[in-house]
């Protein structure tokens, strides 16, 4: 049987190819690119801030996309046109299938299956006079079908093949076709076909790949220039102890603000007059600094604009105000890159690759700069200025002799009459707007729990163990603090907005109840395999608490204990009356065995509870590794030119040695509740150490919290010298002096290392 390859002459299979290709593109394009109009929530519009700053900001955001309506219309038009083409191709293919599946020469000629040659010729002549194209009633398409049917039946062999195989050619050669029309390979069309191939594969594809490669080698994952990241590494390594103004100076030198590296930057002739005039209004700007590129004109201009933004100095709306919106809009992403850069330098300092270790104040100053940029305030200004309509003139009412209101939390806890009295110079509408904004601000319930999850005894910390600090953040609105006497707040807010911590929070009643799995069913009995060690309690420290102490005893176990005691008491009285000492002894032994069995069962149940708690925490750690969203709650920030979401940093540090213990974890999806696991290596010297767990906002001033944890580090067992997870093979041996220096970075409460 021969084989041959041929192109699609009729174009039927080519339509299949076009239909499949178009559907493959059109369906996902419709799902992702069809403009989705957000439903207008009337209640949400009422809750929005109506201050002049927010109204001006919304108008600016609308002006950023003047062609948004036209763009959405064109996208809809293209997608609808594609669906029209898809339906036409589907109709064409369906018609083609119908014609091919219904081709029957006997039916076309109107004769029976066993008709003779004369009957076939007679039927053909009769129908050809009607369907011939030269006739008035002619139909070229039907006449071609008629001719094909006549040819299939006039030849005897073709007729037998049709009757036997359903094909006039019989079981002939197998044919392989290419789903492309034949005009593609025709000579007169070769130039156009080659031109199309050259346009797609030699022009369009190299441009797309080159653009992607250029951006991938020029920008980081957060769309920050790699040259800017290298600049941060250089200057934070040069000046590891950087104050806020030094951090601003490094931020303003970012290459994103230079026109040579960013074509979106606008340079005007008026800058030569406006920028020097603005610099005169800003003290301590440091414009005479000779470091490059800190002394470049673009850097000085950006620095002056950032200082003017933090001082809330109005700028020319046609020139410098436009630059301010662009520069301030880029700053939160650049500040986050600064935090990452300082964190990398700290890691390099721990590994002895760089000589100087940046102190904890440097990375915290970078974090402080983010809410300053978002709110347009210096750190020494009152956090109350984040509310609408509040200015320096209003602050005098908050600092009276009777009451010193310094934080937003303190103001929210006042009674309704007192809050209104402090803002008596505002109208009712303005006051309602202030309370609306204050009520939507975050109030974070900051809980921590410390344990060694990979050891047999998670409540005892040994030297060199891996300590896991579970941070639980429960986000509520500030409206829960409003002067309602029935609402009780569990934490006491101090003047600086932090919580005074006296003990580590364990499992709370607000946690969701999780059903235990089938493999952790309670055992009815059994022998105790391992005896747990008692935990030493520290009266003056926040030592780790045993889970069995926090959890209440089962009610069933209590009832069994009372029944056993009552029965034993009754039997003792009976023994005294009857003087049957032997029988009483045997009964006491039996009851003692039963009680010991019940105790073993209770202890086995407690072991199961501990295993289940460990399983839940491991499952929580696996969930934390999943993809994170970047949508939480909108931030009230009229001085920031774009919409902003609430993000947070949490980390652990040692205040005494001014070192960072864990990398700052950036929380971007705190809607209601978030759980974060922070890990660090316990000190190698036994003793009592005090560390600090910090929570910082990147959007609001005065919302930072910190809690202290005290670790009573015990000496590691003799058989365990190093933690198995941290064994590395190095080609060179480490200097013992360097090891002692690294171990002595932590300091105990007595500031004296224990030998």
Automatic annotation (TrEMBL):
Principal cellular location given in the protein's record? endoplasmic reticulum
From the UniProt entry, list the residue stretches annotated as the region Disordered: 500-612, 714-755
Q: Where is the composition biased (Acidic residues)?
A: 573-587, 727-738, 746-755
Tell where it localizes: Endoplasmic reticulum membrane
Q: Where is the composition biased (Basic and acidic residues)?
A: 546-564, 588-605, 714-726
For bias kind Basic residues, which ranges apply? 521-534
Which positions, given as ranges, span the membrane? 14-34, 73-91, 191-214
Q: Where is the J domain?
A: 104-166
Superkingdom classification of source: Eukaryota
| Cellular component per GO, a single term | Sec62/Sec63 complex
Looking up Pfam families in the UniProt record yields: DnaJ (PF00226), Sec63 (PF02889)
- Name-wise, this protein is J domain-containing protein
What broad taxonomic lineage does this protein's source fall under? Eukaryota, Metazoa, Ecdysozoa, Arthropoda, Hexapoda
């Amino acid at each position: 049987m021969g084989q041959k390859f041929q192109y699609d002459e009729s174009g039927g299979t080519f339509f299949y190819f076009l239909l499949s290709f178009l559907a493959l593109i059109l369906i996902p394009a419709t799902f992702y690119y069809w403009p989705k109009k957000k439903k207008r929530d009337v209640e949400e519009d009422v809750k929005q801030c109506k201050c002049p700053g927010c109204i001006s900001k919304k108008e600016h955001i609308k002006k950023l996309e003047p062609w948004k309506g036209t763009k959405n219309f064109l996208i809809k038009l293209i997608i609808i046109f594609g669906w029209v083409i898809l339906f036409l191709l589907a109709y064409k293919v369906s018609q083609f299938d119908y014609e091919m599946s219904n081709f029957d020469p006997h039916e076309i000629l109107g004769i029976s299956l066993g008709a003779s040659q004369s009957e076939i010729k007679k039927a053909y002549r009769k129908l050809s006079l009607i369907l011939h194209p030269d006739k008035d009633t002619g139909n070229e398409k039907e006449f071609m079908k008629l001719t094909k049917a006549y040819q299939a039946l006039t030849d005897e062999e073709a007729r037998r093949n049709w009757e036997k195989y359903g094909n006039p050619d019989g079981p002939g050669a197998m044919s392989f076709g290419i789903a492309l029309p034949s005009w593609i390979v025709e000579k007169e069309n070769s130039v156009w076909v080659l031109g199309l191939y050259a346009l797609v594969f030699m022009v369009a594809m190299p441009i797309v790949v080159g653009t992607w490669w250029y951006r991938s080698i020029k920008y980081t994952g957060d769309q920050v220039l790699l040259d800017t990241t290298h600049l941060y590494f250089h200057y934070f390594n040069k000046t590891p102890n950087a104050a806020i103004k030094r951090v601003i100076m490094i931020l303003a030198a970012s290459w994103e603000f230079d026109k040579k590296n960013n074509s979106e930057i606008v340079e005007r002739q008026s800058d030569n007059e406006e920028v020097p005039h603005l610099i005169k209004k800003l003290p301590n700007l440091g414009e005479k600094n000779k470091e490059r590129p800190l002394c470049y004109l673009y850097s000085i201009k950006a620095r002056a604009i950032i200082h003017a933004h933090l001082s809330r100095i109005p700028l020319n709306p046609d020139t410098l105000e436009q630059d301010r919106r662009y520069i301030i809009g880029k700053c939160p992403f650049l500040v986050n890159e600064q935090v990452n850069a300082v964190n990398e330098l700290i890691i390099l300092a721990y590994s002895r690759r760089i000589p100087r270790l940046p102190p904890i104040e440097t990375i915290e100053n970078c974090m402080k700069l983010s809410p300053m940029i978002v709110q347009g305030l210096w750190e020494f200004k009152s956090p109350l200025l984040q509310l609408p309509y509040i200015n320096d003139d209003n602050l005098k009412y908050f600092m009276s002799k009777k009451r010193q209101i310094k934080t937003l939390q303190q103001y929210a806890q006042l009674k309704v009459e007192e809050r209104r009295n402090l803002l008596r110079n505002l109208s009712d509408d303005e006051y309602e707007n202030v309370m609306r904004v204050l009520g939507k601000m975050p109030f974070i319930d900051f809980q921590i729990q410390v344990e060694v999850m990979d050891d047999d005894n998670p409540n005892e910390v040994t030297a060199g163990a891996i300590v896991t600090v579970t941070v639980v953040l429960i986000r509520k609105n500030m409206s829960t603090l409003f002067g309602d006497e029935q609402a009780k707040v569990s934490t006491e807010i101090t003047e600086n907005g932090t919580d005074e911590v006296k003990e580590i929070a364990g499992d709370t009643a607000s946690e969701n109840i999780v059903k235990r799995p089938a493999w952790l069913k309670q055992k009815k009995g059994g022998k105790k395999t391992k005896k747990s060690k008692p935990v030493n309690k520290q009266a003056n420290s926040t030592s780790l608490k045993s889970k069995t102490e926090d959890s209440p005893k089962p009610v069933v176990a209590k009832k069994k204990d009372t029944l056993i005691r009552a029965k034993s008491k009754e039997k003792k009285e009976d023994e005294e009356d009857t003087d049957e000492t032997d029988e009483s002894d045997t009964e006491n032994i039996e009851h003692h065995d039963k009680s010991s069995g019940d105790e073993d069962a209770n202890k086995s149940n407690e072991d199961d509870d501990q295993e289940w708690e460990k399983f839940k925490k491991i499952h929580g750690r696996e969930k934390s590794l999943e993809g994170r969203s970047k949508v939480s709650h909108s931030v009230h920030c009229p001085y920031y030119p774009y919409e902003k979401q609430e993000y947070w940093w949490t980390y652990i540090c040692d205040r005494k040695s001014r070192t960072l213990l864990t990398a700052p974890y950036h929380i971007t999806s705190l809607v209601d509740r978030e759980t974060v696991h922070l890990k660090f290596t316990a000190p190698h010297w036994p003793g009592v150490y005090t560390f600090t767990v910090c929570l910082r906002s990147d959007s609001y001033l005065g919302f930072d919290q910190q809690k202290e944890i005290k670790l009573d580090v015990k000496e590691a067992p003799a058989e365990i010298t190093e933690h198995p997870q941290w064994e590395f093979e190095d080609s060179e041996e480490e200097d013992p002096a360097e090891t002692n220096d690294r171990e002595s970075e932590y300091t105990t409460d007595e500031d004296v290392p224990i030998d």
